[in-house]
Amino acid sequence: MASKGGRMPESHDPGQHHFHYNREEREAMLSDETKRIMKKSKLFTMNKRNMIILADIAIILLFTMIFAPIVLGGRSSARIDGFRASLKAYEYDGTVLVSMKVETKTDNPQEAGLVSASFYIEGRDETIDTVDLLPSEAGKPRVLRAEFKASDDDKKKAMVDLEINGTKRTLSIGVKQE
């Protein structure tokens, strides 16, 4: 904005009104209720860079929670040809108990078949092989179980090589202490 005589807009002519701006004085004149509201909202509006950093941290945590179990820790369940298999493992009284539940959501699945599983503890050579029929009705799962003697040098990760109708998957889960 152009001013008269090359002076900046902040300067004033003699005889004209001049307003002195002081933020502290203006905020001191506010009511107590307004001051309280302003203090509450300053947490998120004071520094936009902090808001961006908080949003970045939230996004990173969200991705970590979603993708870390998939990438780092193997899978303890899988869906294969309309069947769902889930693995659980517990250590109780010096024994590692491993069970895998296979279930279907629909009655009369495509075709009756077999489920075969090879249970083992990571880092060991011992395996236990089991075979059973696939469940034919919803709500009536098949449970395959294996039992291993626990030892102190175990990595405490139970695994199963699973095959349903020719499709193979490997499931793994950490052994929980009971």
Structurally, how many domains make up the residues? 2
Q: Name the average pLDDT.
A: 79
Tally of helical runs: 3
Looking at the structure, what is the overall shape?
Answer: elongated
Report the CATH architecture of the largest domain: Sandwich
Low-confidence stretches: none
Strand content: 35-45%
Oligomer: single chain
The radius of gyration over CA amounts to 34 Å
Structural class of the secondary elements? alpha+beta
Helix content: 10-25%
Order of helices and strands: HHHEEEEEEEEE
CA-CA gap between termini: 78 Å
The top-level CATH class of the largest domain is Mainly Beta
At CATH level 3, the topology of the largest domain is Immunoglobulin-like
Q: How many runs of DSSP E, i.e. beta strands?
A: 9
Report the sheet with the most strands, covering strand number, pairing sense and barrel closure.
5 strands, mixed
Tell me what you see in this structure.
This protein is α+β, with helices and mostly antiparallel strands and 178 residues long. The chain folds into 2 domains: 19-71, no CATH class; 77-177, Immunoglobulin-like. It has 3 helices and 9 strands; from the N terminus they run αααβββββββββ. The strands form 2 sheets. Strands 1, 2, 3, 6 and 9 form a 5-stranded mixed beta sheet that branches. A 4-stranded antiparallel beta sheet has the order 5-4-7-8, with no helix packed on it. A hairpin with a 2-residue loop joins strand 7 and strand 8. It is elongated and about 100 Å long.
